Description:
Elements: H1 4-11, H2 13-51, E1 55-58, E2 72-73, H3 76-81, E3 86-101, E4 104-113, E5 129-130, E6 139-143, E7 153-156, E8 159-167, E9 178-182, H4 183-190, H5 195-206, H6 219-227, E10 232-233, E11 235-240, H7 246-257, E12 260-263, H8 264-275, H9 277-307, H10 310-318, H11 323-352, H12 364-384, H13 387-390, H14 403-420, H15 423-426
Parallel strand pairs: 4-9, 6-8
Antiparallel strand pairs: 1-11, 1-12, 2-10, 3-4, 3-11, 5-8, 6-9, 7-8
Amino acid sequence: MISLAGRDILQSWGKFVFTGVGLGLLIGATLTMAGVYRGMVDDARVLLDNSGADLWVVQQDTLGPYAESSSLYDDVYRGIAAMPGVARAANVTYLTMQVGRGDRDVRSMVVGVVPGGPGEPGQPGFLVAGRHITRSHYEAVADVATGFALGDEIRIRRNLYTVVGLTRRMVSSGGDPMVFIPLRDAQEAQFLKDNDAIVRQRRRTAQNPAFDRAGAPGLLDAVIASQSVNPYVNAVLVRIAPGVAPEDVAGPIRRWKRLQVYTRAQMEEILIGKLIAMSARQIGLFLVILAIVSAAIVAFIIYTLTLGKIREIAVLKLIGTRNATIASMILQQALGLGLIGFVVGKVAATLWAPIFPRNIVLETADAGRAIVAVLGDLHAGEHDGDPRGAAGRSGGGGRWLRTRNAASASRACASATARARPRSTRSGTSTWRSPRARWWA
């Protein structure tokens, strides 16, 4: 059986293919926007996974340490480590800043961790090169996304650090790569003042008569020394013992230590539901706009392609072609256009996703929903582009051609039939008339 849709596509295959490619680029942009949101959610979950913690102990009445600022004394972890059900507890600090190397700098999240092996909470779980931090000062482990290499010297505040290890997929909720340094150095960097500010602070303290008393000669020096150190951390990461429920450990810490404790599920809700909620709504709005634009463009394409074949459809009706066959031809072309667009869009999104600075996650489920939506739009566009829908529905029993299109189609059919008759018949005295078209009833 002759494929009417295939024959029609071969007549103008270039326009058909380029139309499918243009539709595919639009689909690729839609898939990329969905991938940006998936990447943000994935970054938030990776941040929690890489911390190696089951519980996050932060300052009371805060959503820290990622969504809000949190400050705890660095000796709090000792009491938490002695609580029942706690396997390990470690201090950690977080500071987003520019980390310099040579004449360039990289936006990074500087994480202060307790030196040790990979089992310590807060330490990177795995390395792709080098070793973990073992010294208390001036060593760093960086994510490969920073562009740093082993042995590089990087500047954080006024100090230089040597990169001794490289890791991968250690990022913040905002997608910034992480740089790990010893906890003491991170505490100093978080509240480090410049030299002029330190001189002014010491002069102000010395002028305070409460600190410069004759009966306490060492008081002023002790106060100045206390102002030169930072005894605070942002959170305490807790790893619970096997077989212990998180709430069984979190409850006593809240009650006896008077601190805020979050479980993994609660921290994920904070990151996804609060920290990236605004970005998620913006991306969702872009997706809705792209979906509406895609549906409108698809319907217009099918409608235009159908109107371009109005005379061919009239000829098919005159030779007795069924309505279902004509509708099937239009539907097959629409589905073919949708498949081309989906393949081009999926390939385009896969190719340009690694170029984006943010993490793009292209899930199979999103691609499946995209092709269903595209084919659904094309099916709807096929009905919108049906010549029956373009006809004047105000009369003629629902005829599907307007009068002006019917007249031109009749002339085209008459001309085609006259060319098909023998020469002797066309040159005879009798005049041959084309049969009247039986329009859609």
